[in-house]
User: Which sequence fits this backbone?
């Protein structure tokens, strides 16, 4: 019987044990370089949906609000499935995860997460380790059976809760006045292209974003698991003992951060292999990579037509760009950069890089240019240091009104464009979605 | 090799019956997607019948075109039909009496033609049909051919003019008066709205909206869960008929 | 000459391949391992949907779809034309040029009216 | 006209499709590894497709809350079946064609047009938003590439004065169509990539939709779906080789070898596009297809007519 041969430990499964490991990465707060490490490993294939994965990799801290979504993503992985959780070493984080997710393999920041993933995958396929059981209770979303005379969910054509859910309702359209159905779907927090922890309640009118709200699942509290990984992009700010901060470390971290961002963006545009190359480069950029980055820039513009497909998407300029600040503002031509005021940076000949259009293309150009510039600065910096006030965070800070800023940027866009906009801005989301920027938000960069 | 006549006969009956069965299934399913694709299946079976009648090109071109056209029909059904996936049960048949009478009349008329008409007693002499068609198009029927092109152009322009909500001068709603809902009201008399309601701007869509409320209202008003009776179903069925 | 046997082979191929896939699917495992309700929730990043995804979907390319309907008709004429073209010579090229130009006007108009993109 | 027995046609096409899918999968891995800057992984690329297929057979098959299960199950089966039909009309040599019909070109076009139909339910049936968007995107894509595709196919029948693929290959005895009708092959390959929604035109299954129509599929379903897409790429390569690259024509080597070499070359080009070109936006794809590619395809037909006078 084929069915039994397909079970873990059978001949088919032994053959499958040598396959590239399909991994779904669930990024918690402070996921660090976990995803980039997996992207840069040829034995691993990072997939876009848990349905296609076998290994779930959880990275960093998962606050209580994200625990249930995480468990659901876990359950959506078809068996055989296995979990690897990479966490920072904070206050008993490893033990807490082992207690709450006894089936998972827990690794610390120093361990080789890719090797652990491959090992766990082989173990479960060879039958040496049981496939993980569902984590959520088997409860139907709503009672529905036998309500109507035909056994349907509800009343009339569109009423009731057939099969446990109501049907979509209508709304006037923003663009062409055809009032058809709109569907509200809460996207995230583990959608692959999304910034860490972002949950957008998107109302779809067809494939166009009709409205968007930001849901906050990040509130800290009891029941959170794991600790943020030491994030090199935020290292320099995290450690008060290391004041003032050395510029070369800071700028290398910025380069790594931007390259990891670029690797994810390339995956979003279907360029997995190129994303893998960039992820490998992001692991440890060296001064020689400056030439590679310039070369990469040229090729992305021309051969890979990334410039063409990102031009004009998600334009954020003027006041909106000023509201975002950071990389997004600089991509729109605003030379706002904390480093400008630093004598140490001025001595290195620093002038902020800017682009003009503020669209998706200029945002990746901006990040790539800043990554190149960061490497150059790091090469020149020697042991120069910079004080706290003049450190420019590598990541894109979330504006005070994240919901409003995203609403302006996304409403009326086709979903692919909307997602590309979110991914290219990639804001650092934090609890309360941006009233004030607490220090721990940077750690989640 | 000529195929065995028996096999051809068997195939003819099989695909003939299948075309009727899939045609019937169009009205037996709740899902608009299934309905569209059953209709496509019915056409495909007719296409195979054409093939069996030695009309290779017509058969293949029918299949080729129906694939695209039924895909379009599916998306329009899904756009405008309530409950497009059939999550709640519904009836695709409406106006039973008229439908039955029309069906019987059509059947009698077609069967009558079949009985009365004088058919050739053997299949047409095999000839390259595609070539014959081409010669016809380049010969006597050239005017028809070019007129068809012009007709298609007119269709394209009309389709764009009717369906597009914007043009080279911007939104079609900008500066336009909403057509009156009440037939007695003249558009010119309608109060000028600072921002014309785009939704009301579409007379066709207003019809859709009206029927939608009707459908929902029937359920929400709780007009008896027994409201899923014959008349209720019929009413919803009519909505579908108008929608298409 | 119509080779019905060849079409028979094509039809057999279609049915046999489809049957093979369905058989393989059936053999590879019981239909649907997903025993629990959470395992069956559609994926949207971890949160369950509020409503069914099946809806009156606003396909934004409906004008283009209408354009396709008319354009599709043209193919009916083009294939027979292509077959006899060389026998007929210059008349045929003149005729198809006029035909194609008329259709191209339609595309030009659609493009001018910006009707090809998303509504 | 030689008529092949049905069983021989089925077996031959199954073998060809199997080999084509395997070559496409290996090429995909090899090109990917090269672009990623990894060396010496050719050995793994050869075994990779089998191991990946084994995993999909071991893996459970996902389902959703309230899918249209039958339409969902049928989708990959029909898609693969239609890819096989498309392969079957392409002649391997002068005397070997699995399905040899007079209007072979139109049968190929019909199989391609029908292949649009299963993609839609593959996304629609799961009752999940991301695959649903993918399904509707694909209809937009299909309506856009269909015309350039058919017109590019049509252009090769003009010099041959025939819709039979044997005649079309023979008509290239002196000059291949890729030279005689230079716009035809690029248009055909672009449209073909759209049909298999591969690489830069992977609109329905893109990463921005979490895998699109594949977002809710796993296991045997995903295996069948991936196989179907690669088989469709193979069908397009084979047709491209026959219609534009002179099929079995060529010096020294036997005709079948030429046909195989040309097909594999086109297959590698098509497969590589995934690693070389970024995915385009759906709206841009539609507008460019209509405003640029269809006029180009019409010009191509007139060029084909002018050169064959």
Assistant:
């Amino acid at each position: 019987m084929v069915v039994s041969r397909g079970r873990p430990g059978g001949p088919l499964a032994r053959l499958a044990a040598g396959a590239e490991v399909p991994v779904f990465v669930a990024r918690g707060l402070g996921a660090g370089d976990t995803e980039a490490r997996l992207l840069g490993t040829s034995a691993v294939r990072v997939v876009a949906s848990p349905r296609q994965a076998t290994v779930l990799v959880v990275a960093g801290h998962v606050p209580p609000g994200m625990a249930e979504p995480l468990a659901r993503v876990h359950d959506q992985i078809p068996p055989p499935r296995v979990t690897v959780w990479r966490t920072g070493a904070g206050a008993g984080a490893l033990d807490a995860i082992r207690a709450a997710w006894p089936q998972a393999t827990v690794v610390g920041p120093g361990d080789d997460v890719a090797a652990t993933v491959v090992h766990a995958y082989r173990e479960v396929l060879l039958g040496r380790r049981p496939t993980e059981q569902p984590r959520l209770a088997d409860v139907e979303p709503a009672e529905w059976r036998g309500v109507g005379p035909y056994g349907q969910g509800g009343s009339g054509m569109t009423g009731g809760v057939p099969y446990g859910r109501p049907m979509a309702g209508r709304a006037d359209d923003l663009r062409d006045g055809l009032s058809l159905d709109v569907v509200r779907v809460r996207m995230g927090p583990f959608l692959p292209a999304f910034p860490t922890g972002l949950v957008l309640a998107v109302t779809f009118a067809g494939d166009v974003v009709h409205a968007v709200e930001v849901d906050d699942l990040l509130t800290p509290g009891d029941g959170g698991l794991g600790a943020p990984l030491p994030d090199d992009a935020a290292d320099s700010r995290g450690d008060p003992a290391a004041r003032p901060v050395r510029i070369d470390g800071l700028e290398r971290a910025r380069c790594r951060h931007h390259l990891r961002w670029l690797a994810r963006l390339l995956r979003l545009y279907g360029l997995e292999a190129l994303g893998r190359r960039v992820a490998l480069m992001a692991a440890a950029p060296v001064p020689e990579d400056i030439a590679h980055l310039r070369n990469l820039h040229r090729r992305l513009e021309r051969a890979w037509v990334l410039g063409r497909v990102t031009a004009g998407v998600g334009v954020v300029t003027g006041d909106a760009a000023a509201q975002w600040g950071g990389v997004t503002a600089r991509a729109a031509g605003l030379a706002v950069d904390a480093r400008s005021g630093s004598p140490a940076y001025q001595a290195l000949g620093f002038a902020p890089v800017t682009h003009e259009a503020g669209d998706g293309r200029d945002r990746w150009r901006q990040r790539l240019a800043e990554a190149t510039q960061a490497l150059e600065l790091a090469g020149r910096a020697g042991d120069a240091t910079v004080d706290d006030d003049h450190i420019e965070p590598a990541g894109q800070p979330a504006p005070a009104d994240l919901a409003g800023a995203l609403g302006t940027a996304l409403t009326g866009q086709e979903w692919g464009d909307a997602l590309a906009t979110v991914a290219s801005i990639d804001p650092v989301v934090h609890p309360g979605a941006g009233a004030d920027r607490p220090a721990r938000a940077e750690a989640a960069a | 090799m000529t195929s065995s006549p028996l096999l051809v006969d068997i195939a003819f009956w099989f695909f003939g019956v299948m075309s009727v069965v899939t045609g019937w299934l169009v009205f037996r399913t709740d899902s608009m997607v299934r309905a569209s694709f059953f209709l496509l299946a019915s056409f495909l079976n007719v296409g195979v019948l054409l093939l069996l009648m030695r009309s290779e090109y017509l058969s293949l071109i029918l299949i080729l075109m129906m694939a695209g056209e039924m895909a379009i029909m599916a998306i329009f059904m899904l756009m405008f039909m309530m409950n497009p996936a059939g999550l709640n049960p519904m009836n695709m048949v409406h106006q039973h009496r008229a439908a039955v009478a029309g069906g019987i009349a059509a059947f009698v008329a077609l069967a009558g033609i079949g009985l009365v008409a004088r058919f050739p007693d053997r299949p047409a002499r095999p000839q390259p049909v595609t070539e014959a068609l081409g010669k016809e198009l380049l010969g006597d029927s050239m005017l028809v051919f070019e007129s068809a092109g012009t007709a298609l152009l007119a269709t394209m322009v009309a389709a764009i003019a009717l369906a597009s909500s914007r043009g080279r001068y911007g939104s079609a709603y900008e500066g336009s008066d909403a057509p009156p809902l009440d037939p007695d009201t003249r558009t010119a008399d309608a109060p000028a709205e600072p921002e014309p309601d785009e939704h009301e701007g579409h007379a066709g869509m207003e019809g859709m909206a009206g029927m939608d409320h009707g459908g929902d209202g029937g359920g929400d008003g709780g007009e008896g869960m027994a409201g899923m009776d014959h008349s209720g179903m019929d009413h919803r069925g009519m909505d579908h008929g108008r929608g298409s | 000459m119509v080779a019905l046997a060849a079409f028979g082979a094509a039809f057999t191929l279609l049915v046999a391949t489809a049957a093979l896939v369905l058989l393989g699917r059936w053999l590879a495992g019981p239909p649907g391992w997903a025993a629990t309700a959470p395992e069956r929730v559609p994926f949207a990043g971890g949160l369950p949907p509020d409503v069914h995804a099946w809806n009156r979907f606003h396909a934004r390319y409906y004008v283009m779809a209408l354009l396709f309907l008319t354009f599709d008709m043209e193919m009916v004429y083009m294939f027979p034309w292509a077959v006899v073209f060389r026998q007929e010579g210059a008349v045929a090229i003149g005729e198809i040029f006029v035909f194609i130009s008329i259709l191209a006007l339609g595309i030009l108009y659609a493009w001018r009216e910006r009707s090809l993109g998303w509504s | 006209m030689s008529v092949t027995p049905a069983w021989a046609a089925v077996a031959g096409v199954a073998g060809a499709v199997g080999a084509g899918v395997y070559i496409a999968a290996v090429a995909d891995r090899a090109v990917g590894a090269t672009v990623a800057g990894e060396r010496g992984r050719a050995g793994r690329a050869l075994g990779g497709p089998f191991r990946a297929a084994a995993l999909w057979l071991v893996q459970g098959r996902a389902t959703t809350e309230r899918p249209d299960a039958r339409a969902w199950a049928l989708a990959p089966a029909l898609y693969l079946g239609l890819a096989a039909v498309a392969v079957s009309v392409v002649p391997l040599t002068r005397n070997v064609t699995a399905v040899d019909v007079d209007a072979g070109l139109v049968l190929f076009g019909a199989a391609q047009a029908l292949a649009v139909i299963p993609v839609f339910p593959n996304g629609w049936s799961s009752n999940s938003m991301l695959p649903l968007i993918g399904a509707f995107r694909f209809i937009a894509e299909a309506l856009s590439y269909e015309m350039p595709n058919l017109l590019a196919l049509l252009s090769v029948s003009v010099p041959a004065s025939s819709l039979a693929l044997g005649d079309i290959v023979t008509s290239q005895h002196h000059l291949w169509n890729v030279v005689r009708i230079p716009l035809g092959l690029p248009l055909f390959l672009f449209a073909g990539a759209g049909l298999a929604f591969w690489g830069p035109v992977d609109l329905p299954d893109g990463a921005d939709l979490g895998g699109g129509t594949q977002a809710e599929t796993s296991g045997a379903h995903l295996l069948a779906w991936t196989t179907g897409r690669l088989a469709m790429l193979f069908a397009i390569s084979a047709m491209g080789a026959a219609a534009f690259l002179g099929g079995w024509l060529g010096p020294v080597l036997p005709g079948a070898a030429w046909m195989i070499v040309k097909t594999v070359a086109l297959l590698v080009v098509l497969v590589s596009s995934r690693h070389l070109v970024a995915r385009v936006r759906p709206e841009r794809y539609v507008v460019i297809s209509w405003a640029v590619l269809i006029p180009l395809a019409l010009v191509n037909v007139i060029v084909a007519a002018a050169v064959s006078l």
In short: The first helix of chain D runs from residue 6 to 35. The CA atoms of residues 98 and 278 of chain D lie 37 Å apart. Chain D has twelve helices and no strands.
